Amino acid sequence: MTAPGPPVVAATDPGAVDRAAAVLVAGGTVVLPTDTVYGLAALPARPGATGALFRLKARAADQPLAVLVADADQAVALLAHVSAEVRGWMERWWPGALTIVGARSTAALDLELGAGPDTIGIRCPDLPFLREVAARVGPIATTSANRSGEPTPQTAAEAAASLDGPVGLVVDGGPAGTLASTVVDTVASPWRVLRVGAVSESDLRSGS
Length: 208
Prior knowledge:
The structure is a single chain. The chain has about 210 residues and is of the alpha/beta class. About 25% of the residues lie in helices and about 20% in strands. α1 packs across α5 (about 130-135). It is globular, with a radius of gyration of 16 Å.
């Protein structure tokens, strides 16, 4: 007999935020839609929770996880320093597909994100559902919902099935995109783009 799959809820369901928040607060994992690709999420403030993300993806633990936040204020609290240029990017590109890597603030030092404890990648997603969850539970550690090295599926069911084990909840937001966020490292001087995505380097330089 085939084992039952994880529970599934539509992102438009009135109870979706409550259900996702409950699983995350309990230390569980959730497949959820983002404004880029389907994500696999856990709470980095919950000891041991993000370890499941690495196991489910068969991903090396030295590859850091980014976090999704509810707004710029939640992001700024996690960063040791925010320059005028970075603040301008937040105002222009958030909510949206830009991940900003910066030095961690004292408040962020205990977040379990893999790799070293000195830096953190942060994004404010252009999806009200996700921002509401982050407002409820705090910053959410998220990585693409696929096994490492494989393409990211475009449906919630395919994303859940691609992982190396079950998750606590699947939130179905319909077909997702395949273009990930742009990642920019602001710890480096001058800053540098680590991954090209929806926002181009020329856009960042021009501020347009």
